[in-house]
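anyone seen this seq b4? input:
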Amino acid sequence: MDQLTDHRILQGCIGGDIKAQDAFVRRFSNLIYQTVQGTLRARNLPLHKLDLEDLHNTVFVRLFEKECRKLRQYKGKNGCSIASWIRLIAVRTVLDSLRKARTDLLTRREKIVSLDAALNMEAEAPGQWAFMESAERSGLIQKALQALPHRDRLLLKLHCEEGLSLQEVAEMLKISEGNAYSVKHRAIKRLAAKLAQ
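predicted toks r here
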């Protein structure tokens, strides 16, 4: 396809045309997948199929969210093609995901309290011990969540933390509602298994 066709598809997406969005996904799906894969490989990170698929879907969510805000930002300056713009968004999305994962890890480390400090807290205020136990449970859940594949984490975050319905999550991830229920069911089973360990 040429740039003119790409431009028409882009304008259709911005205008809310479902057929244009389908054409956009078909047109750029492979490019995004390869870009995600290349970005992870360049950082010597493991390439798990589910993580690749989740990041691939996350790029599309970012491109289509907020009435296609990222697509509207494309100006084509300095000979930048639509494909180059999408590649840039894909790389930034992957890097943002990696940065967020690293920040979550550091935040969890900062929450670790020494035994002496915990005992002092208990002596000073008995209610603090219950708070500590609650924080520990929360930390264990967060740790177990990080061990799940990216798609499972994304679905649980959108559905459980942000309160979106499974139908809304399915639309954002470009999967069927039935598939969203299956992913949720598997994610909860995996999470329970991680917590049991």
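Residues 82-110 form the longest helix (29 residues). The domain at 1-101 is CATH 1.10.1740.10 (Rna Polymerase Sigma Factor; Chain: A). kinda curious what u guys think
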